[in-house]
Amino acid sequence: MSKKDIDRIGERLRRSEQLLSIDDLRALDQFRRRHEQILDAFRAAMADLQLIEGANFSTRIKTSNTIIEKLKRPTPSGNPLRLSSMRDIAGARLVRAWRRDSSLPVASDDLAQQSNFAECLRAELEKREFRVKVIDKRSSGAATFGYRALHLEALRSGLRLEIQLRTTLQDVWAQIAEKLGDLWGRDHRYAEDPADPDREVRMSHGDWHEVDQEGRAEFVTDVVTKARREVVRSLRSLSTSIQTLEESTPKATDELTGELLSLYEQFDWLDSIKE
Amino acid sequence: MTHFLIQYRRSKGELELMREYDDAHADEAADERLRLEIEHHADRDVEVVIIASKDLASLKRTHARYFNGAIHERIDAYRKAAGLPASPSPSAPPSGSPAPGK
């Protein structure tokens, strides 16, 4: 399958409407399966480094739905994303990884250890025919929606692998953001702040019985939409707080854990309203 | 490594199916992933994925979103380590929330 062939498949998927062609799905699957080769090599390296023991580590091939969503999403440059250029078809995730002997750092749950761990992992992978670039995404100001992690982009035999290294707090934040994306739509990652976040809710509880069903439905939609936007905004703000905390102390505080829990409860509850 | 084949309904946050395959049967898992993707190709709300991980506990740690309560479990473990009481039930409205109106 040539690069041109891959991009033709991507182009057809980008233009696809609701119903996908089975032939295109099969072609996409064939392209995805090629990436098993780099995942196998990475898993072998990890086993060799004894990183699997005791580490929270997993690998995956990107789902067809998320590939198609990404192909359809406008890019900042305005040029369509090519399937052959997609950087995370193959992915790996390590959360607070460590190993038992001393040739790699013991833990990576603060920023310095995370950086140190990334450099050591890069060096180990490069000994095993990977070419590796470290991409620092830990500044919440640079992120589009607050996601923070340290990434390694690894290349081998013409295939690319994105390795996500996350501290515990970076990971809990990201898991909440991902769950939120499932329930409310992934667009929240790209959404603007509410146009008028200080706007008062139009109706007090006392007015509730004086409006018809349509008015009530509109009221609930209005409240839920506003509340969801506020949760998304809080989530971004929390990412900045986590960054400040991680930059100032080596361990998370109880207060921040409480904030995370409170935020999770908020969106859990908001989601229950629609059912 | 265990290869976990997962079928997940995004809008409800529900894990609809999970099967485990060992390394020797990884190709079989990939075939089954394609079969499920074709079966659900008209339904963008369904996500089909294979994640390779050491075990289920590790999978729940790296991909908590597929498992209801997994994020809470982690936060509770955090609270326990910090000597704090367990968190309240996730289904209860947070304090200070307005009435949902139904």
In brief:
By secondary structure, chain A is an alpha+beta fold.
Structural class of chain A: alpha+beta
Fraction of helical residues of chain A: 40-55%
Radius of gyration of chain A: 22 Å
Structural class of chain B: alpha+beta
Global outline of chain A: flat
Quaternary organisation: heterodimer
Ranges of chain B where pLDDT stays below 50 over 5 or more residues in a row are 91-102
Portion in strands of chain B: 15-25%
Number of helices of chain A: 8
What is the strand tally of chain A? Answer: 5
Model regions low in confidence, pLDDT < 50 over at least 5 residues of chain A: 98-108, 191-203
Strand content of chain A: 5-15%
Order of helices and strands of chain B: EEHEHH
What letter string, H or E per element, gives the SSE order of chain A? HHHEHEHEEEHHH
End-to-end separation of chain A: 46 Å
User: Cα-atom Rg of chain B, whole angstroms?
Assistant: 17 Å
How would you characterize the overall build of this protein?
The complex is a heterodimer of chains A (275) and B (102). Helices cover 50% and strands 13% of the residues of chain A. By secondary structure, chain A is α+β, with helices and mostly antiparallel strands. Chain A has a 5-stranded mixed β-sheet. Chain B is α+β, with helices and mostly antiparallel strands and 102 residues long. In chain B, 32% of the residues lie in helices and 25% in strands. Chain B contains 3 helices and 3 strands. Chain B has helices spanning 26-39, 56-62, 70-81, and strands spanning 2-9, 14-22, 46-53. In chain B, a hairpin with a 4-residue loop joins strand 1 and strand 2 (14-22). Chain B is flat and about 50 Å long. The N and C termini of chain B lie far apart (47 Å). At the A-B interface, helix 2, helix 3, strand 1, helix 4 and strand 2 of A face helix 1, strand 3, helix 2 and helix 3 of B.
